[in-house]
Structure to design on (1062 residues):
């Protein structure tokens, strides 16, 4: 392909200037013994047209295209306004590096500053960073932040935190001297307050819970925060469905000290799990413990407003092994998409979208639980996702629904065997009344 | 591209009642008792309200305040700012990929799994390592996964050990990642030619050392010619060799880390394999390991069974997950497309021309700028401001003046072992014209430093804002917009 | 430049002995090298320090540097005003920019420190190299 811009003549002249007879001479510093003495065993070069054909053919082996999906569980299909794709694909946003030279990066820096502001407004907290990899690593970084802030080494983690997030937290804390204990949920699907009370002690750095939790239930953030604070532990709210922040009270206003999570819902396609958008907001007292990049406002010598990356002494390129995190590259372009998305929907649109999700989920609950032997599994309030109890194991139900054109949800048996035969069903604004009605009919057929 | 265009914050142009995004009317019966008992917000206070026209102009104007690879040479050392092929953007956004949910059953995502498995195969061949995970979201994330793999393997032997050795020229992510794996960091001083001092390594390499983290070529752009010997010393004491693959652009198709005694390696697909940097991410940091370490890779691992791809979660010795789902998938699609486009000769040409371009710049600027290490360069070269300091000019002044010439400055003040460093990596995709533009600008600046240093100190002169007050930004942090009371 | 009533370490800290306590700060040379100081991380009062142990961290925009205890002992007090005004280290390094008072454990530690004249000679040596 044609990404190389040197002609044969250029190469000849450049080698002459360098004083090398051939390109091979430039590799003389690599000992013969470690050189690869053969061509790489890769398929031959392809033209653009050939590439498009071969890669689209691979894509065609994915077989979910025609199915109507009710999947959620940490990745949500939402409407993406056209301006998001259009504006975010500009080369000026796609192809620069991290904005280390602020004079030629004011676009990226102002976007980060706006993103930080929007995250603070949604989370109800003072400060936010420029992004983290995803919700799962956000949860892990929040645990380590709580350890640094409190000097304590135990965290209580809700069993209703996304199972994959819990795994990532476990991986991250393994060698950092942090112990994680799990707190279960009651019949309403909310964190069991009595169990939490028993697990909290003077060594607890944080209570980490998700709201709406993995099973769709909105937690009592105020009560969880009060319980954490009674032991001087931090209240860490993880939000895997960022859209919920458009309707539910900001966790920071209910007592959460750190709000972290996944903002994929804001203009990012589900894209088989990534790239997504981790975010983190916290109280300003923890500023020096916050991981990741932060943009700040300042002025140039003529007093013109500008933005820079600031407070970098927290970061690995300066503080090295004592940095607040090892993160360097983050998810800047995803944060740009989320910023365009949030500004496009705006104050009314984001709330409207969130409200429609909740309304449609409520309607779906009504329709689906009207099917004989199908029930709500947990009684607590939900946003756009809920656990459905079924009279048959999920794989059989799933197969039947697929044959009728639906991905009806995500089976819960592996992660939550205590729920019996159950599935997690998500309903976003993309699902129509007709699709919900048809899903209910399909379910009835499959179960009869 | 009008210098005087000023773009306010979106919050400053917001006005009540405006909106861009519209949704269809709700098509289900409205429930009034929705979320009863749950605290709801009446509104998102101070959230922006603008029209679609305003959104479009806002971001278009902001975009015009960025320099980017699509505009010109971006020679940041150790960042590999090469051209990002456009067809890769198109294919990674194809609905077959972008529309597939990560919790879909594996029989419905055979295409995605084929992408992952094929990319793994290509990366194994290019690096000479035996197995890969594609889960890490960036280079530093790969370092973390890789060092955890080493720790897990050592723990399985009965002793995790305590220390990781890291050369003083290394990226800051190396010591930081080692720390999160529970290791103390011991720095190894570079020798006189800028490479690892083998005697110093030998002295430091004890039975307490878990691993050496080495970047090769190192951050000076110098190949560690003793890498075989170095790996031998580390292995003899039961340690592992971790290679930071940030500079893999110098080696593709020419030499393979797996053949040098490297046990664990991370790649940066957003460097070597052309995926865009996006103003700071998303990247992707796949980790390759030798056979012996394969059982410790993060879950899930993609396997082939009966002609189908399957996700293998049954990996009792795995370090666990480092991220939800499967990594930055659409970035992985781009990297796959890139390798498929180039083929074996094209992949080798990456290294060949990256090294030619860097040496062309080095040769052209020798004499104008000080070169602390005269050791041969590979894909990047590191000058310093030593000659210009005589006129009171620093690398910062040089960098800012380059902006006036329409080129992006190189990496500054890194590696730490070169005071006043200017670290230049042109990559293979630059044209002779753009290389000469950069060289000409650097030469003009060297001349100005002698003759008219004040113009350098006041640079840049052509941008929307001049040098910004970073001290003020850190002393009195303003990290978000707030409505004036 | 360097007051005669202070003693100096080769890590660029100064010490002023007052009774059994050592007032500790960083030297004018150190503040100049660091540039604008943004933040000082202070040790907790009561912390026991070995000789040369890190007692805190000084941050500028793009660097962090440890402050090493020039004498061993227990932290008796810290300069709380640095919390709001870290730039006192730039403005008045040998006076209002003091960092901590250490209750001296072993007076012999003081013997390892330099006089003002010797410290200035030491600095000249650094500038030549």
């Amino acid at each position: 392909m044609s990404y190389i811009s040197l002609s044969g003549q250029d190469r000849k002249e450049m080698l002459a200037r360098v004083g090398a007879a051939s390109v091979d001479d430039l590799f003389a510093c690599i000992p013969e013994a470690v050189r690869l003495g053969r061509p790489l065993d890769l398929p031959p070069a392809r033209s653009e047209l050939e590439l498009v054909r071969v890669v689209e053919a691979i894509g065609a082996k994915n077989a979910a295209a025609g199915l109507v999906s009710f999947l959620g569980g940490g990745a949500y299909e939402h409407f993406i306004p056209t301006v998001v794709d259009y504006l975010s694909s500009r080369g000026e946003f796609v192809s620069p590096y991290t904005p280390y030279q602020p004079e030629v990066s004011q676009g990226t820096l102002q976007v980060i500053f706006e993103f930080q502001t929007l995250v603070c407004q949604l989370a109800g907290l003072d400060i936010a960073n420029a992004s983290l990899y995803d919700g799962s690593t956000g949860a892990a970084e929040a645990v380590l932040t709580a350890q640094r802030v409190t000097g304590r080494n135990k965290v209580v983690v809700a069993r209703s935190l996304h199972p994959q997030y819990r795994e990532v937290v476990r991986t991250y804390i393994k060698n950092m001297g942090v112990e994680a204990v799990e707190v279960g949920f009651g019949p309403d699907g909310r964190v069991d307050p009595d169990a939490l009370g028993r697990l909290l002690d003077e060594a607890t750095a944080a209570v980490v819970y998700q709201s709406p939790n993995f099973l769709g239930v909105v937690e009592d953030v105020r009560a969880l925060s009060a319980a954490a604070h009674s032991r001087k532990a931090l209240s860490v709210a993880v939000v895997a469905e960022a859209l919920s922040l458009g309707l539910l009270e900001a966790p920071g206003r209910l007592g959460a000290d750190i709000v972290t999570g996944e903002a994929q819902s804001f203009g990012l396609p589900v894209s088989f799990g990534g790239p997504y958008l981790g975010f983190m907001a916290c109280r300003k007292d923890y500023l020096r413990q916050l991981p990741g990049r932060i943009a700040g406002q300042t002025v140039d010598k003529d007093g013109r407003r500008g933005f820079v990356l600031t407070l970098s002494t927290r970061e690995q390129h300066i503080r090295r092994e004592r940095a607040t995190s090892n993160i360097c590259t983050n998810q800047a372009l995803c944060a740009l998409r989320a910023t365009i998305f949030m500004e496009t929907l705006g104050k009314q649109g984001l709330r409207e979208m969130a409200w429609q999700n909740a309304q449609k989920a409520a309607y779906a609950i009504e329709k689906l639980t009207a099917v004989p032997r199908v029930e709500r599994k947990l009684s607590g309030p939900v946003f756009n996702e809920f656990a459905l109890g079924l009279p048959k194991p999920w794989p059989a139900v799933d197969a039947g629904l697929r044959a009728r054109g639906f991905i009806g949800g995500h089976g819960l048996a592996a992660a939550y065997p205590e729920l019996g035969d159950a599935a997690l069903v998500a309903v976003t604004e993309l699902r129509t009344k007709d699709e919900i009605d048809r899903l209910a009919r399909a379910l009835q057929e499959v179960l009869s | 591209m009008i210098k005087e265009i000023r773009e306010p914050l979106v919050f400053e142009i917001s006005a009540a009642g405006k909106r861009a995004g519209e949704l269809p009317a709700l098509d289900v019966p409205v429930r009034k008792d929705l979320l009863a008992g749950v605290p709801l917000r009446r509104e998102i206070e101070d959230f922006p309200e603008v029209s679609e026209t305003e959104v479009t102009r806002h971001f278009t104007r902001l975009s015009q305040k960025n320099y980017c690879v699509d505009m010109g040479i971006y020679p940041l050392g150790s960042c590999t700012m090469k051209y990002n092929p456009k067809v890769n953007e198109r294919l990674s956004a194809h609905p077959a990929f972008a529309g597939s949910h990560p919790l879909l059953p594996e029989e419905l995502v055979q295409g995605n799994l084929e992408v992952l498995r094929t990319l793994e195969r290509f990366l194994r061949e290019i690096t000479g390592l035996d197995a890969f995970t594609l889960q890490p979201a960036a280079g530093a994330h790969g370092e973390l996964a890789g060092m955890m793999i080493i720790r897990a393997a050592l723990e399985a032997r009965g002793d995790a050990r305590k220390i990781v050795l890291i050369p003083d020229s290394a990226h800051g992510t190396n010591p930081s990642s080692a720390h999160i794996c529970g290791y103390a960091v011991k720095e190894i001083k570079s020798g006189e030619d800028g490479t690892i001092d083998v005697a110093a390594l030998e002295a430091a390499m004890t039975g307490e050392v878990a691993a050496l983290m080495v970047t090769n070529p190192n951050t000076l752009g110098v190949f560690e010619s003793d890498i075989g010997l170095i790996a031998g010393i580390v292995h003899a004491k039961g340690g592992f060799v971790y290679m930071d693959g940030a500079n893999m652009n110098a080696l593709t198709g020419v030499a393979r880390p797996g053949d040098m005694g490297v046990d664990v390696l991370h790649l940066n697909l957003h460097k070597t394999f052309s995926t865009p940097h996006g103003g700071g991410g998303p990247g992707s940091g796949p980790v390759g390991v030798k056979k012996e370490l394969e059982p410790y890779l993060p879950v899930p691992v993609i396997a082939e069974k009966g002609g189908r791809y399957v996700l293998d979660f049954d990996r009792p010795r795995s370090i666990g997950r480092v991220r939800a789902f499967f990594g930055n998938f659409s970035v992985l699609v781009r990297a796959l497309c890139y390798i498929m486009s180039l083929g074996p000769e094209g992949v080798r040409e990456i290294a060949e021309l990256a090294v030619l371009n860097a040496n062309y710049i080095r040769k052209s600027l020798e004499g104008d700028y000080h070169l602390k290490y005269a050791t041969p360069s590979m894909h990047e070269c590191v000058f310093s401001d030593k000659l210009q300091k005589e006129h009171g000019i620093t690398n910062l002044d040089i960098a800012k003046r380059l902006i006036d010439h329409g080129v992006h400055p190189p990496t500054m003040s890194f590696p730490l072992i070169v005071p006043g460093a200017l670290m230049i990596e042109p990559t293979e995709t630059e044209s002779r014209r753009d290389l000469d533009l950069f060289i000409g600008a650097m030469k003009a600046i060297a001349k100005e430093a002698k003759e008219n240093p004040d113009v350098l100190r006041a640079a840049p002169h052509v941008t929307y804002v001049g040098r910004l007050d970073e001290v003020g930004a850190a002393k009195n942090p303003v990290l978000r917009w707030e409505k004036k009371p | 430049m360097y007051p005669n009533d202070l003693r100096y370490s080769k890590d660029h800290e100064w010490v002023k002995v007052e009774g059994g306590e050592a007032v500790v700060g960083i030297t004018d040379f150190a503040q100049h090298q660091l540039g604008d100081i943004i933040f000082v991380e202070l040790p907790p009062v009561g912390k026991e320090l070995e000789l040369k142990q890190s007692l805190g961290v000084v941050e500028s925009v793009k660097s962090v540097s440890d402050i090493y205890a020039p004498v061993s002992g227990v932290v008796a007090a810290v300069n709380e005003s640095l919390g709001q005004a870290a730039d006192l280290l730039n403005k008045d390094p040998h006076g209002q920019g003091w960092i901590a008072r250490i209750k001296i454990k072993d007076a012999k530690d003081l013997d390892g420190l330099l006089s003002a004249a010797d410290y200035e000679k030491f600095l000249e040596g650094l500038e030549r190299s």
Summary: Chain A touches chain C through six residues (CB under 8 Å). The mean pLDDT of chain A is 97. Residues 332-369 of chain A form the longest helix (38 residues).
